[in-house]
Amino acid sequence: MPHYMIRANYTQQGIQGVMKDGAASRVVAVEAMVGSVGGRLLSAYWAFGDDDFIGIAELPDNAAAMAIAATVGASGTSSVSTTVLLTASEVDEAIARKPTYRAPGS
């Protein structure tokens, strides 16, 4: 099953909710959300810097990842960025493929 890195930045309303309910309650909520689209939350971290929350999730497909990003984004409590994660074997498989390509101006 594909893996995704989900990064979120809280709005003022979002961080107020974390402060009120606690960080552990957000992990439970994210686990439930990921499970509702057929996935599994593998890890969850809070950070300071560019991101407030980083989760690694195993999801069935890109549509499930988009459903999560759209739902969280629409809530108005966070903005979300999702990155598809690749294994070494997937990278090796990609490198082995030889697409036909002509560079601009060539």
Short description:
The chain is of the alpha+beta class and 106 residues long. The chain has helices at residues 12-21, 23-36, 62-75, 88-96, and strands spanning 3-10, 40-46, 53-58, 78-85. It is elongated.
Question: Any overview of this molecule?
Answer:
The model has no long low-confidence stretch (mean pLDDT 96). Helix content is 44%, strand content 27%. A four-stranded antiparallel beta sheet has the order 2-3-1-4. It is built from four helices and four strands, in the order βααββαβα. The protein is an alpha+beta fold.
Strands of the largest sheet, in order across it? 2-3-1-4
DSSP strand content: 25-35%
Mean pLDDT: 96
- Poorly predicted tracts of residues: none
Number of strands: 4
Order of helical and strand elements: EHHEEHEH
Radius of gyration equals: 17 Å
Question: Level of helix content?
Answer: 40-55%
How many helix segments?
Answer: 4
Coarse shape:
elongated
Major sheet = 4 strands, antiparallel
For the terminal residues, how far apart are their CA atoms? 39 Å
Quick tags:
106 residues
Task: Reconstruct the topology from this structure.
Layout: E1 3-10, H1 12-21, H2 23-36, E2 40-46, E3 53-58, H3 62-75, E4 78-85, H4 88-96
Antiparallel strand pairs: 1-3, 1-4, 2-3
